[in-house]
UniProtKB/TrEMBL annotation:
Residues 246-312 are annotated as: Disordered. Keywords: Golgi apparatus, Membrane, Protein transport, Transport. Belongs to the COG8 family. Residues 246-303 have a biased composition (Basic and acidic residues). The lineage of its organism: Eukaryota, Metazoa, Chordata, Craniata, Vertebrata. One of its GO terms (cellular component) is Golgi membrane. This is Conserved oligomeric Golgi complex subunit 8. One of its GO terms (biological process) is protein transport. It is a peripheral membrane protein. It comes from Champsocephalus gunnari (Mackerel icefish). PANTHER family: CONSERVED OLIGOMERIC GOLGI COMPLEX COMPONENT 8, CONSERVED OLIGOMERIC GOLGI COMPLEX SUBUNIT 8.
């Protein structure tokens, strides 16, 4: 870019020709990452079994406070369903790579790519249901319903929020010269159509109306940061944080046990000391008895000698 700026002095500014190259490269990288995420999701679904497990990572964690401005909090409930958690983790990795070079012109292409990817995810979920439905127990049916609800209510809306950070609607509206509320007329620009994605799963999901998310953003200003940090938002990070907390709890438990052992050791030392004192007391008493016996023996000897002298 600096090279092109230098050539602009002689009327040969070629910087405008470089943007499509970066745009194509970023799009190809994203498509490759999304394709790999889909392959891994398919592999995970092929070996996935609905097992009711006490989830330490997702279900039992108390709700945290709302995310701070400029950050996104991945839904922890997805940790209860490994295929969804791993898929979102891979998509977030692709987003983190994309935001390093994310032209606004990619908004439609990225949205279409993710729309197709989520449609493939829906098809994989349906294939899993058709293959396993006949063997479902009552508990497994409930778990599969929870799986679908988590996919519909947590994963898809979160991906839309990520897209709105990568491609802010107010920036797109400013470029197109239309209000933000009119962006839906231009198709998929920085969002995915959740209702269309979930249509094949409508017979499995509870009868709820899926309304498009209302976009309420402030007026565009030079003071607003439109590229919040997306790094570190993977579910793997959440797992690591929970594991660290578990390790801290285990460490504290070990410290308590060590303290208890030290107290027991001190008590044993006190008891041993008391036993030594008692032993010494017994030795003293024994010596006193020996002294008394020796004194009595000495007196008896002296009396015998006195009697002997008197007889003579």
């Amino acid at each position: 870019m600096y090279f092109g700026l230098s050539f602009s002095r002689v009327g040969a500014d070629f910087r405008g020709q470089l943007a499509p190259m970066f745009q194509r490269s970023a799009a190809e990288t994203l498509r490759g990452a999304v394709s790999e995420a889909l392959e891994r999701f398919q592999e995970d679904m092929n070996v996935y079994t609905l097992i009711s497990m006490p989830s330490v990572l997702g279900g039992s964690i108390p709700p945290q406070q709302g995310p701070q401005p400029g950050t996104l909090q991945p839904p922890l409930s997805l940790l209860d369903f490994t295929p969804l958690a791993c898929f979102l983790n891979n998509i977030l990795s692709a987003f983190n790579d994309l935001r390093l070079c994310c032209p606004v012109g990619l908004a439609e292409e990225v949205s279409v790519c993710l729309q197709d990817a989520m449609a493939d995810v829906t098809r994989q979920v349906l294939l899993f249901h058709r293959a396993e439905e006949s063997a479902f127990s009552a508990r497994e049916k409930d778990l599969f319903l929870s799986f679908c609800c988590s996919y519909a209510e947590d994963l898809l809306p979160f991906i839309n929020r990520c897209l709105q950070i990568l491609f802010p609607p107010n920036q797109i509206a400013l470029i197109l010269g239309v209000p933000v509320s009119q962006l839906h007329r231009f198709g998929s620009l920085g969002n995915i159509d959740i209702a269309a994605i979930l249509t094949p799963l409508s017979f499995l999901l509870p009868q709820i109306e899926i309304a498009p998310e209302e976009i309420q953003l402030p007026e565009i200003s030079s003071d607003i940061d439109f590229s919040p940090e997306l790094s570190g938002l993977t579910l793997e990070t959440q797992r690591q944080e929970v594991e660290i907390k578990q390790q801290e709890v285990e460490t504290k438990q070990q410290e308590v046990e060590t303290h208890q052992q030290q107290e027991e050791t001190k008590q044993q030392e006190v008891e041993t000391h008391q036993q030594e004192v008692e032993t010494k007391q017994q030795e003293v008493e024994t010596k006193q008895q020996e002294v008394e016996l020796s004194e009595e023996t000495g007196k008896s000897h002296s009396e015998d000698q006195d009697e002997d002298f008197s007889l003579e």
